[in-house]
Amino acid sequence: QKHVIDAGRVEMSALRADGTEFPIEFSLGATQGTNSQLIIAFLRDISQRVAQEKELLTARDEALEAAKAKSQFLAIMSHEMRTPLNGVMAVLDLLSATKVDEKQKTYVKTAITSAEILKQHVDDVLDLTRIQAGKLEFFPRSFNLVELLEEVENINLATAAAIKNRISLTVDMPQPYFVADRKRIHQVLTNLVGNAIKFTENGRIHISARFTNVQAN
Fold first, then answer.
1. What is the model's pLDDT at position 116?
2. What is the pTM of this model?
3. Which residues share a beta bridge with 168?
4. Is the dihedral angle over the CA atoms 63, 68, 71, 77 positive or is it negative?
């Protein structure tokens, strides 16, 4: 057929002598000979290439399914972990309100700190699954930044002391209130301080905040 001639490379199926099909890349060209038109045919067996493409597509689909299953598993496990963890933290709060000596009070405080850090890790996993699903949202509201920094400091005190690190905090700002997503800022700062503690020994981790009046051009 004339529309096939000089139409470029076309993929189609061909038949072997034994009747089995295989994929080919096929093209036809025409040129005028001395007495008649000449047809030039190009044919190439692309069975190996097609098989490799199918393998790549299969591997991609399997990887996507595995990633989806991993995200679902993390989300389920994170939700399941929060319930007993909240129960543990509630009992520790009740225990801290009872009559305990100074040594026991230190133990309870350390347990509460560890539970808060674990809860933060669980929240981080939940955020990871939300990011992968494209559902992460931000909720700006007014909050006291100084109180947030003090929380971050207190949560990490026990972990820092365990490897003989000290944490210090310096705040220099005219007013402590800002509008932003408090939870996300808390997560970022907790991770930064946690990493600083992890890679420091017999040292000092200093948290500082100061107000900078940046004017837009």
1. 79
2. 0.50
3. 206
4. negative
